[in-house]
Amino acid sequence: MDAHHLRPCKANENIPEFGAGDTIKVNYKIKEGERTRLQPFQGVVLFKNGGKSPAASFTVRRIAQGIGIERLFPLYSPNIDSVEVLRYGKVRRARLYYFRERSGRAARIKERMVNGRPLRPQVKKT
Predict the structure, then answer these.
(1) I need a surface site. Which of 9, 18, 30, 80 has the fewest CB within 10 A?
(2) CA dist list (Å): 78 to 5, 6, 27, 28, 75
(3) Looking at the 3D structure of the chain, how many domains does it have?
(4) Domain range for residue 71?
(5) How is residue 107 annotated by DSSP?
(6) What tens digit of pLDDT does each residue of 45-100 get?
(7) What does pTM read for this prediction?
């Protein structure tokens, strides 16, 4: 029996469904001394790992000043404030490791289409 069977973990309602190839923006809480601030990290999801277990995570990659930066986020972390899906990507694989060697035009991902129109993220009305 695993630990996640003994104590259920609560999903964050500010994290929508997304998958590999999607462009997302993760707002992560960072504590500096006594202050807490949000740091956005925007990039392409390379893969999700761990399914629904408390150890589930996802990796986001972005290019900053010509250097590729990858960051691993735990899915059930209390430090994740919110995740916004900016663009849904159309990919044929669940793990985009090949994306690391590509840059420029070769690193483009097609946008997922529905009835000839781009699939747009749902915006929650408050």
Answers:
(1) 30
(2) 20, 19, 11, 9, 9
(3) 1
(4) 14-94
(5) G
(6) 999 998 888 888 999 999 998 889 999 999 988 899 999 999 999 999 999 999 99
(7) 0.83
